[in-house]
Amino acid sequence: MAVRKGKISRPPKKKGQWEDHYTRKAKEDKYPARSVYKLQEIQRKFTLIKKGAKVLDLGCSPGSWLLYAAELSGGGGHVVGIDLKPVTIKLPPHAEALVGDILSLTPELEEAFSSGFSVVISDMAPATTGMKDVDAARSLELCDMALTVAIERLLSGGHFVCKIFQGGDFDAYVTRVKGHFKQVKIFKPESCRKQSKEIYVIGIGKKE
Ligand SMILES: C[S@@+](CC[C@H](N)C(=O)[O-])C[C@H]1O[C@@H](n2cnc3c(N)ncnc32)[C@H](O)[C@@H]1O
């Protein structure tokens, strides 16, 4: 490895190094991100989003889950997303994306989320540092907020999907989810990158 001016110089990344089958497929299928296939696998296994569903999508940018959830719920449904970043893709009329921070909701956002949802999905991810424990702790903070939002806004019998970076508090989080849902499943979609610590906690049937 060549060393210059005290810095380690790494071989340049090849163009498209992180492109894989799912990235290419997302482009072909006209979704803005490969993450759509994770929700698709979850949907194929658990059938959580039905026609007419009212869905809240936390961490929705760039909009793949939002678009897919809107396709599943159809025109009779409604999908609302929130993210720190705007969604710039064209959405169908029954889907909307709001900009905001789930960790400090403004009264306007509280209002937009006020009515009963049949499904709350969260693919939120913190900006990663590469430090496993820090990343897991930040992910957990987002997951706890997603669970709070789900408990407050889901209809009885509603479902919850939440991405989490596995860390020391993972089991305790799953226990918290179990307190509010009739069934809880842990699922790692095939389309998750193999090196990723992410996994999905799925709460089925919110308790009364
Ligand atoms: C993996 S991306 C979501 C991809 C999305 N599901 C899709 O399919 O297009 C994770 C998102 O979580 C968002 N996020 C992270 N922290 C957030 C917060 N505090 N409030 C809202 N969104 C947040 C990020 O801005 C990022 O866009």
Task: Walk me through what this model shows.
This protein is of the alpha/beta class and 208 residues long. The protein has 6 helices and 9 strands, in the order ββααβαββαβαβαββ. The N and C termini lie far apart (60 Å). 36% of the residues are buried. S-adenosylmethionine (SAM) binds next to helix 3 and strand 4.
Topology:
Layout (H helix, E strand, L loop, with lengths): L2 E2 L2 E2 L12 H9 L6 H11 L7 E5 L5 H10 L4 E6 L11 E5 L7 H6 L4 E6 L9 H22 E12 L4 H9 L2 E7 L10 E9 L2
Bound molecules: S-adenosylmethionine.
The site of S-adenosylmethionine (SAM) has 23 residues, from α3 and β4.
Q: In whole angstroms, how far apart are the ends?
A: 60 Å
Low-confidence stretches: 1-17
At CATH level 3, the topology is Rossmann fold
Bound molecules: S-adenosylmethionine
Order of SSEs? EEHHEHEEHEHEHEE
Count of domain modules: 1
CATH-derived architecture: 3-Layer(aba) Sandwich
DSSP helical segment count: 6
- Rg over CA atoms: 18 Å
Largest sheet: 7 strands, mixed
Enzyme class: transferase
Organism: Desulfoluna limicola
Keywords: Cytoplasm, Methyltransferase, rRNA processing, S-adenosyl-L-methionine, Transferase
Region (Disordered): 1-23
Descriptive tags:
208 residues, alpha/beta, Rossmann fold, 7-stranded mixed beta sheet, two-stranded antiparallel ribbon, 9 strands, globular, disordered N terminus, binds S-adenosylmethionine
Please summarize what this structure is:
The protein has helices spanning 21-29, 36-46, 64-73, 107-112, 132-153, 170-178, and strands at residues 3-4, 7-8, 54-58, 78-83, 95-99, 117-122, 154-165, 181-187, 198-206. It has 208 residues and is an alpha/beta fold. It has a single domain, classed as Rossmann fold.
